[in-house]
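STRUCTURE:
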């Protein structure tokens, strides 16, 4: 089975995940849920996943996102880190996330 090249990222604290060009996070007014739209695929992430995905701008690192969520929810950073990395890795493995590339001038 061939593996698409965008799926081979390993999410870590230093990763700067971003949705690939072919995927969009948007609110589906009809269903009243957030969805990730990709060619021939739709994924409806839960509320927490949506909040994390909204932070995936290709600028923030996973560590930055986790720090922000830990402060917002007054939760243990390590627990959030474990959950966020697992969720982002799952999405990356399914082709819904990629690593931000350094921009070259």
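SEQUENCE:
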């Amino acid at each position: 089975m061939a593996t698409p090249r965008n799926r081979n990222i390993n999410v870590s604290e230093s990763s700067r995940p971003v949705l690939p060009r072919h995927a969009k996070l948007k609110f589906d007014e009809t269903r009243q849920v957030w969805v990730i739209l990709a060619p021939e695929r739709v994924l409806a992430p839960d509320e927490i996943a949506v909040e994390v995905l909204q932070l995936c701008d290709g600028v923030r690192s996973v560590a930055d996102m986790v720090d922000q969520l830990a402060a917002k929810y007054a939760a243990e950073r390590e627990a959030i880190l474990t959950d966020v990395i697992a969720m982002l890795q799952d999405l990356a493995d399914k082709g819904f996330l990629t690593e931000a590339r350094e921009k070259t001038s």
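REMARK: The helical segments are 47-55, 62-73, 77-93.
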